Amino acid sequence: MSNAVYPGSFDPVTKGHLDIIRRAAKMFDRLTVSVLNNSDKSPLFSADERVNMLRVICRDIPNVEIDSFSGLTADYAKQTGTDVIIRGLRAVTDFEYELQMAQTNRKILPSLDTVFLTTSLEYAYLSSSIVREVASYGGDISEFVTPEVAEAVYKKLEDCQLVNSKRKY
Ligand code: COA
Questions:
Q1: What is the full per-residue pLDDT of the chain (169 aa) written as tens digits?
Q2: Which of 11, 75, 118, 144 could form a disulfide with 43 if both were Cys (CB 3.0 to 4.6 A apart)?
Q3: Domain that residue 72 falls in
Q4: Does residue 119's CB lie within 6 angstroms of at least one atom of ligand 1?
Q5: What CATH number corresponds to the domain at position 70?
Q6: Does residue 129 carry a catalytic annotation?
Q7: How many structural domains is the chain composed of?
Q8: Cα–ligand 1 centroid distance for 154 (angstroms)
Q9: Is 158 within the bounds of a domain?
Q10: Residue from 9, 34, 68, 128 carrying the catalytic annotation
């Protein structure tokens, strides 16, 4: 039985992430999408909220489970008995950082390999911070995230009074 972990911040999960999840789920018997709960980023959504959003949008993919973790990805992989990490590569700018992470992870846990999937072209520009920024100006994020996630983003920004102008969509 082959399994893999797709770790990330997912703040919030985008259609670009979902594209990677769907494709990786076809390659492995089981895929765990795991939300990083480290304190060095100040996320818009709590780890529990990010986990819940992922559960909703991945509900139709039977071999995907959602989890969260803190600390090192390599330690988490070891605890869960996983030897493969999935990461998406959007552009050449991602490469250096991703290579460094993959090599560090292998140094910490030599059995751990990273599989890179190239992000589909239509999502190559996308990031969670782009989604947060466009939404914070009342912009349309329906091209970037699923309807459930869009609702959650607008609501969270309103609750946090982070909306710069009235929502237009
Ligand atoms: N579609 C859309 N956006 C994508 C994407 C895709 N396919 N792939 C990456 N992104 C974006 C994310 O939206 C995010 O955008 P943001 O910075 O605007 O919020 C950005 O790329 C970073 O992606 P993410 O996948 O969330 O990675 P990360 O850098 O937050 O976290 C971990 C990566 C969790 C794998 C890494 O930080 C980690 O392993 N941390 C644990 C500590 C550790 O083990 N360190 C040692 C390894 S060096």
A1: 799 999 999 999 999 999 999 999 999 999 999 999 986 778 999 999 999 999 999 999 999 999 999 999 999 999 999 999 999 998 888 899 999 999 999 999 999 999 999 999 999 999 999 999 999 999 999 999 999 999 999 999 988 876 665 565 5
A2: 11
A3: 3-124
A4: yes
A5: 3.40.50.620
A6: no
A7: 1
A8: 22
A9: no
A10: 128
